Amino acid sequence: MAMPVFRPGDDPGANFPELLRRTGVNLPTASGSTVALGAVPHATTCVALRYADGVVMAGDRRATAGNLISHRSMDKLVEADRYSGVAIAGAAGPAMEMVRLFQLQLEHYEKVEGAALSLEGKANQLSMMIRGNLQAAMMGMGVVPIFAGYDRRRRIGRLWDYDITGGRYEERDYVATGSGSLHAGTVVKVGYRAGLDRSAAIDLACRALWEAADADSATGGPDALRGIYPTVATITATGFARVDDDELATRYETIADEVRAR
């Protein structure tokens, strides 16, 4: 297959989705009714908050299809590139497809331009992708992610939330999304303090998901029997780093002891 050639006025540049369209690759769109599909698996609660060194992102592992648990160990928190991550809530299939395309977009931009896209540029690009999913969202397959990362220019962590129309909103300190967001967001709001260290920030994110799982049936809590714990990661000047399950097991056992004591 020959490499595509574009005229100067028709060059898609570093826009990877536009490159696909110009070469005749049609991105999938929803049409008709989703009723025939049955219950579509949905991802639920995710949180993100700033701390002294960057940001902490966390998401539970449960995906539900109607009143059934369709997956117990879904990863809703994905590394977008070295200095940013996406936490998804909404229809699982379109969300994961969007994240994969977003990862390709960031890699494509860096290869074409010779430099990484700015953190705010990444947030804008994800907003455009969510806007492109509006037709599917109107049919019940909405995707509402959280985007966060470490801004190497400002040397701080930053985070954004979105609505189904693609509107993006930068949050100052913390954000939650998904069906358990009311409970998780309340826990973070009450416990948040400026300048939290890594340990305190991870603890707060873990407690937020614990309380969300306690009140929201679509949010999965820690499953010690199966060894399944929420996905938690930090993003700092050294990059994206996932918190291992052994550390999370210890933290959740401490939370469980406190709950028993109450």
At the fourth CATH level, what is the homologous superfamily?
Aminohydrolase, N-terminal nucleophile (Ntn) domain
Number of domains: 1
Average residue-wise pLDDT? 88
Q: What is the count of helical runs? A: 7
Largest sheet: 5 strands, antiparallel
- How widely separated are the two ends? 66 Å
Q: In the CATH hierarchy, what is the class?
A: Alpha Beta
DSSP helix fraction:
25-40%
Which regions have little confidence, pLDDT < 50, spanning 5+ residues? 32-38
CATH T-level fold name: Glutamine Phosphoribosylpyrophosphate, subunit 1, domain 1
H/E element sequence = HEEEEEEEEHHHEEEEHHEEH
Number of separate strands = 14
Give, in spatial order, the strands making up the sheet with the most strands: 12-2-3-13-14
The CATH architecture can be named as 4-Layer Sandwich
Structural class: alpha+beta
What is the percentage of strand-forming residues?
Answer: 15-25%
Shape: globular
The rounded Rg comes to: 19 Å
Summarize the structure.
This protein is of the alpha+beta class and about 260 residues long.
